[in-house]
Amino acid sequence: MYLGNQPALSYTSFAKQDFTTSATTAYTLSQPVANENEIALFINFVRQEPTTAYTASGTSLTLTSATSASDDMYAIFLGKAVQTVNPPAGSVGTSQLANGAVTSAKLDSGLALGKVLQVVNATYSTNVTSSSNTFADSGLTASITPSSASNKVLVFANINGIYKNANNTGISLRLLRGGTNIHNIESIASFTNDTSASAVGSASTSYLDSPSTTSSTIYKIQFNSFNNLGTVNINANSVSGGTVSTMTLMEIAG
Question: Does domain 116-252 have CATH number 2.60.120.760?
Answer without folding.
Answer: yes
